[in-house]
Each structure stands twice: as structure tokens, then as C-alpha cells.
Specification:
single chain; about 425 residues; mainly alpha; 2 domains
Length: about 425
């Protein structure tokens, strides 16, 4: 407790609302620090109902709650704090009976979600685990819309794991985000629980809608810009693959979280809702419970719609991946074909130059030898004849190596010329015979 008093600080993190049966309420002079909360909870209790609201629970508030809890409250409180601090995907709705000591019925829900906020730098939760890792993580999702724009100074879009929304209303009920006053609260625990759950689910749904809308606009903007830049540089494809990998991982995590919401709400309506519907038929209970259940059901449908939308984003990205790979392969195949054609043309040119220059080089080498080695006297005429002879030998070698294509070509040309000459000769012979007649 000495450590709590010295190191908890002066930050006000809690509200304590005590209410008796006559409706008298006390908010203990507004917000409380962790140590003030401990002292208030240790005082003799005069109220019949007590509501404790703690924002961003840390080790000092946990210590305050645990040290002031009664033996009957300790099991339920311990499990509640454990589930709250443990980041689990999706919502958790629990209705359980504590059988140890005095029988208690505990109603609780946990709504972890991702909130989209604009900040100059990535947010970091000061609360840490034993490993030094922050209790709640945050991620910079600016890459969704500015992957090519590294000099964007408009700020960063950050999503971070949240457990509650900040409410700064003093006289309003913090559990319902200020939508109701704190005086009539807790008149019926089950009705109040449904009311708080409906309000918190609605606020969570709004956060999901903002996040999904941002992702939809960011993906649309990025994809339209990418296809315009596809043919510009090779680096565009590499950046696109990195962006696709990061976006797919983000979508997969969001889909798992929001699907857990839908599954838990389905379980709630299939199993636990009967406990809440049992008292709604009483004439002493207002219709607010039915309104809350209707709101929860609508939120469940909206969350399922958002889940389907995120799934469609992933499917479209998968199609874009295959499309991009196909276009890139086609582009590379075209480039490869063009380079092969260019190389073939260059090779043919070099081959022709070699074959044309080879006879001249061989003839010049033969005639440049010392007298007596070959029976040829160096002269321009002998050089020309040597070039012609070597040229004929080279073409004969080419004809043999290329499957006698040159011979067939020459033969075909000769046959065509012969076919043209023979009819002409016959026609001239007939004219000569007629003239003689």
C-alpha cells in the first residue's frame, strides 16, 4: 500500500458511485486516483448499490480493487480483471454463478475493438506486461493510402486495441457513455446490464464502421493509382506486393475480431438471452430491456454486414494479385520475346558478316605466305580467283550444314526458269512451222 500511495500518481482514473435505496447518490467529489479509490473502497459502506468505473485499468487500480474486495467478490472480480487484461479476439459475454461462499450471479462483457485515430506518431500503451510488451498494441495503417507518398506530413492513421471509450461526463452514467444519468441506474441489474451492453455495442459498431470505411477508400485509391503506375518502373510491382501482404494481414486480423463478435452475439441470443427475457414480462419492469435487446440484435446484423464487407475486400485483393501476376508475366514474356528477336537479328548480321569476310581473309592469308609453299603467284587476278574459290567452298559447307536448303532453293528457281523457257521455245517452233507452210 505504501508503493500504491507513492507511485500511483495524481492521475484520476476512476469514478465511484454509491447509491442507497432512497435514491441518494454520491460521486465522491468526481474522479479518483488509484490510491483515492482504494481509500474510498476501504471506508465503511453506507450504500446498498455501488458502481465502480475505471478507465484504462493498470496495476495500481488492479491493486486497489483487489485489496478492497470482500471474500465473496474476490473470485468474480479476479476472473473479470484477468479477462479484461488478456487481449482476446472479439467480444466475451459471460453470465455465471459463483458457488464459492455466498452464491453470486455475475454478468460481464468484454468488447475489444480497433479504433482509428490520427496521430503524428504511433501510439504506445504505457501499461506493459512482464515481458515489457505494451498491454494494448497499435499499428500504423498509413501505408493503405500513402504507400507511394513517403513525404506525407498530414499525420498518421493509427489503429489501436481499445477496451473502452473515454467518457468525461461527471453526473452522467459513465457505463452508458453519458446517455443516462447515474441516479436511476442499477434499479434492476439485468435491465441495466442490457442497457450498458447496447450502448457500448453501438459505440463499438460506430468505430468499426469508421475503420471499414477508411479501409475501403484507401484500397480503392491505392489500386487506382497502382494500375496507372504499373508500367512505369519495376519497383512498382515490388511495392505492390509489400502493400498487398501488409493489407491482407491487417484484413485477416480485423475479420477474425469482428467474426468473434458475431459468434458471441449469436451465442448470447441462442443461450443467455432467456435469462434476460424472463423478467421482461413483469409489469414492474419497463420496456427498456426489450429496447436494449432489439438494439443489440441490430448491432449484431450490422457487424455481420461489416464482416462480409471485409471478406469481400480480401477476395478482391486476391483477384487483383492474380491479375497483377498475369499482367506482369505477360509483360515479362513480351520483353523476353522482343529481346530474343533482337538477339537473333544481331546474330544473323554477325553470321553474314563472318561468312562474307571469311573467304577474303583466307585468300589473303594464302597469298601472303612465302614463295614456294603454294604454287600460286601473288597477283590481283589470283587473289580474286582465290576469293571466289573459297567463297564457293564456304557456301557449299553452309549448304550441307543447313540441310541443303540452298540447293533446294537454287533447284526450285532453276526449275521455275526452265518451265518459263520451254513454253516459249515451243511457241517459237510452231510459229516457224507455220511460216514454212
Amino acid at each position: 500500500m505504501q508503493g500504491l500511495e507513492k507511485t500511483a500518481g495524481s492521475l484520476k482514473v476512476a469514478l465511484l458511485d454509491d447509491t442507497n435505496d432512497e435514491g441518494s447518490s454520491s460521486l465522491h467529489r468526481g474522479g479518483l486516483t488509484a490510491f483515492d479509490l482504494y481509500k474510498a473502497l476501504r471506508r465503511p459502506r453506507w450504500a446498498t448499490r455501488r458502481a465502480r468505473y475505471v478507465a484504462n485499468i493498470d496495476r495500481w487500480t488492479v491493486l486497489s480493487l483487489a485489496a478492497s474486495a470482500s471474500e465473496s467478490q474476490a473470485p468474480a472480480l479476479g476472473e473479470f480483471i484477468y479477462r479484461h487484461l488478456q487481449w482476446t479476439t472479439g467480444t466475451r459475454l459471460h453470465t455465471r454463478i459463483i458457488t464459492e461462499g455466498i452464491p453470486l450471479y455475475a454478468l460481464e462483457f468484454h468488447l475489444p475493438f480497433y479504433a482509428l485515430r490520427r496521430h503524428r506518431k504511433t501510439m504506445r500503451d504505457l501499461r506493459t506486461r512482464r515481458t515489457g510488451e505494451p498491454l494494448r498494441q497499435s499499428q500504423d495503417v498509413t501505408f493503405l493510402r500513402t504507400f507511394f507518398e513517403k513525404n506525407d506530413n498530414s499525420g498518421y492513421d493509427i489503429i489501436y486495441q481499445a477496451k473502452n471509450l473515454s467518457d468525461h461526463k461527471v453526473r452522467l452514467d459513465p457505463f452508458t457513455a453519458g446517455e443516462t444519468t447515474s441516479h436511476p441506474a442499477l434499479c434492476e441489474p439485468r435491465e441495466y446490464f442490457l442497457q450498458v451492453l447496447a450502448v457500448r455495442l453501438t459505440n463499438t459498431k460506430h468505430e468499426w464502421e469508421k475503420l471499414v470505411l477508411f479501409i475501403e477508400e484507401a484500397i480503392g485509391t491505392y489500386m487506382s493509382d497502382y494500375w496507372a503506375r504499373l508500367a512505369q518502373t519495376e519497383s512498382s510491382s515490388s511495392k505492390f506486393h509489400n502493400w498487398m501482404k501488409m493489407t491482407t494481414a491487417l484484413l485477416r486480423e480485423l475479420i477474425n475480431t469482428i467474426q468473434e463478435y458475431v459468434r458471441e452475439l449469436d451465442l448470447f441470443f441462442s443461450k443467455w438471452v432467456y435469462y434476460f427475457c424472463g423478467f421482461t414480462h413483469s409489469t414492474n419492469v419497463s420496456d427498456r430491456a426489450i429496447v436494449s435487446l432489439t438494439t443489440i440484435d441490430k448491432v449484431r446484423d450490422e457487424l455481420e454486414r461489416l464482416s462480409i464487407k471485409l471478406h469481400n475486400f480480401m477476395d478482391n485483393l486476391a483477384k487483383d494479385i492474380s491479375r497483377e501476376v498475369t499482367l506482369r508475366l505477360a509483360h515479362e514474356n513480351n520483353e523476353s520475346t522482343l529481346s530474343q528477336q533482337a538477339a537473333g537479328r544481331d546474330l544473323r548480321v554477325l553470321t553474314w558478316i563472318t561468312f562474307l569476310s571469311l573467304p577474303i581473309a583466307l585468300a589473303a592469308a594464302l597469298l601472303s605466305t612465302s614463295q614456294g609453299y603454294i604454287p600460286i603467284t601473288p597477283s590481283p587476278w589470283n587473289l580474286l580467283m582465290s576469293i571466289l574459290i573459297v567463297e564457293v567452298l564456304v557456301w557449299i559447307a553452309l549448304d550441307v550444314l543447313w540441310g541443303l536448303r540452298w540447293s533446294r532453293t537454287v533447284a526450285k528457281w532453276g526449275w521455275t526458269q526452265a518451265c518459263r523457257v520451254i513454253p516459249v521455245s515451243r511457241a517459237r517452233g510452231m510459229e516457224h512451222e507455220e511460216s514454212n507452210a
